Amino acid sequence: MSQRWWQNSVVYQIYPRSFADGNGDGIGDLRGIIQHLDYLQALGVDVVWLSPVYKSPNDDNGYDISDYRDIMTEFGTLADWREMIDGLHQRGIKLVMDLVVNHTSDEHPWFVEARKSKDNAYRDYYIWRAPKDGGEPNNWASFFGGSAWQFDETTGEYYLHLFTKKQPDLNWENPKVRAEVYALMHWWLKQGVDGFRMDVINMISKVPGLPDAPIMDADSRYQFGGQYFINGPRLLEFLHEMKREVLSKYDLLTVGETPLMTPDYASLVTHPDTGCLSMLFEFEHMDLDTAPGKPKWFSQPWSLCDLKDVTMRWQTGLANRGWNSSYLTNHDQPRAVSRFGDDGEYRVQSAKLLATFTHLLQGTPYIYQGEELGMTNVAFDGIEDYRDVESLNMYREFVDERGLDPQIVLGMLHAKSRDNARTPMQWSAAAHAGFTTGTPWIKVNPNYTAINAAQALADPDSIFHYYRRLIELRHAQPVIVHGVTELVLADHPQIMAFTRTWQAERLLVILNFSRETPLVDLPADLIEADYEVMIANYPIDPGHPHRSILRPYEARVYLVVRHRL
Ligand code: GLC
Ligand code: CA
Q1: Is residue 542's pLDDT more than 80?
Q2: Which candidate in 157, 194, 199, 371 is catalytic?
Q3: Both 131 and 251 in a single domain?
Q4: 348 with 431, same domain?
Q5: What is the per-residue pLDDT for 71?
């Protein structure tokens, strides 16, 4: 397989609203990012993925764009943005922008025009339908509650919005829409950006006729219609057109956000010769702690064997015929250490274990801001502290419409709200975690006095420095980038272990995903070898890992020195 720069890169995601506030208005901004570029360089990341900074009325914190070629007022100006990208490039860090083109804001000039009349030149930029039997054109649910259709008085028709009603879906069947998207991509690429993260990109092609979805949730009037708009009939055609018109002209990192993806389809999209994008974000591992067929709020305990199955399906599924991304959290997910580790007694050990997991798999690792500090979920006392539109809509629906107990619903938010990831970055033990000198737009997690960047930078044993070493190792060891992954101890309920093999090199990764102390019992071919420790989250004696007792959340990576036989 040909080697590309983004294969041995590590990406750091910035959610600008919550990263750093440069002017004291309580909202993170570009100036704040500029002030922390040295921090990113100290961590050693190669790429920053910046969540949307475009003009937006912020119904969904920037994922509702009203001008693709300008910066959100609260975040600064294009001049600030240029200073930021220059500062990144001077430090050898590339910049990936968020491309949100499944939908726009309803305040985008295209939509403002489109809703004026049925014969407006922009009408066909969006998806309009006449009422059916006096109601919505079909039974699709919006991801953020209620119907996916909004009635518009002026013309007496409905428009489709898979997300909030302020995020109307673009009509990708219209070649003019596609040409607009390619033009705005070129515009940013000419400003020097190094790639795009493509928001819900596998939803842009809808099945013609927009059929009703089957009834899955009998408690709701509206149903999940994913089979009619996920990996839709023209998706590959559109992506190949985008490749031909835009992507092929530059050397980019492109990553598609793609719920309900399969390895076979992902291989079509990311194949090194015939694909169109560098990699995808798949979601199978994000669904392991949700009751089958239920919305994400209905949690269930996840099992390590399921995580192994999903991980290996993707590791082997894309080996030599695509490329993986590797992540455990982002701005839409709970904090990784709270969800997959232990955010109490073993927070530091388990955060390092999870880091070892994501960084030692084949695929490009993504770090979400604060993950490198082991930041945790937050449990706000009441709904008034939540800000996320998805959380607020869900609370209203579950409490006001379905009559669920507010305490139970708050418990669901504590586990799964997107605001868990959106509390301000914890820079120091100063007021508001050093995020702002004003009043933060969302409350800081009260644990900032103990968990913060100043503390982490000063402690050589911190989670931060562990990430820094993992990144250094990836840069130095091709086996981490290219090694073939094979599971060891496949059925062990607490230990995840795998080897990575590339040319004459082999690594053995041993991860105890529990607070227990299991015994490592290796298969024969791994016993007859010598081992060197590459990185570990506890002090360990040199020598053979076989028949050793692992400590809670212990993670060890060994270089297997060729067989003694
Ligand atoms: C993606 C984004 C999420 C946003 C949604 C609609 O899933 O990551 O934050 O709400 O798309 O744009
Ligand atoms: Ca600000």
Answers
A1: no
A2: 199
A3: no
A4: yes
A5: 98
Per the annotation, the verdict on 257 as an active-site residue is yes
Do 201 and 311 share a structural domain?
Answer: yes
Q: How many CB atoms lie within 10 A of CB 517?
A: 12
Confidence of residue 42 (pLDDT cuts 50, 70, 90): very high
What average pLDDT does this structure show over 385-413?
97
Q: Tell whether 80 and 129 lie within a shared domain.
A: no
Domains identified in the chain, total number: 3
* pLDDT at site 15: 99
Question: Distance, CA 64 to ligand 1 centroid (Å)?
Answer: 9
Mutate to test the pocket of ligand 1, among 54, 66, 105, 163 (most ligand atoms within 8 A of CB): 163
Q: 65: buried, middle or exposed (CB in 10 Å: 19+, 13-18, 0-12)?
A: buried
pLDDT exceeds cutoff 80 at 2: no
Give the pLDDT confidence of 321-369 residue by residue, as tens digits.
999 999 999 999 999 999 999 999 999 999 999 999 999 999 999 999 9
**Domain region containing 512:** 483-563
* 302 token code pair: 């996840």
Which ligand 1 atom is nearest residue 331's CA?
9
Q: Which ligand ends up closest to the CA of 332?
A: 1
- Torsions phi, psi for 116 (to 5 deg): -70, -40
List pocket residues of ligand 1, CB cut-off 6 Å.
Answer: 60, 63, 100, 163, 199-200, 257, 331-332
* Annotated catalytic residue 287: no
Give, as residue ranges, everything with CB less than 5 Å from ion ligand 2.
21, 23, 25, 27, 29
For residue 203 the two structure tokens come to 């939803």
Name the pTM for this structure.
0.98
pLDDT band at 464 (very low <50, low <70, confident <90, very high): very high
Q: Which of 257, 282, 342, 419 is catalytic?
A: 257
473 contacts 356 by C-beta, under 8 angstroms = no
Do 356 and 321 belong to one domain? yes
Q: What is the CATH number of the domain that holds 505?
A: 2.60.40.1180
Q: How far apart (Å, rounded) are the C-alpha atoms in residues 447 and 430?
A: 12
Same domain, 99 and 133: no
Inform me whether the pLDDT recorded for 563 exceeds 80. no
Instruction: Write down the residue that tokens 């169109």 correspond to.
Output: 276
Ligand 1 centroid distance, CA of 59 (Å):
11
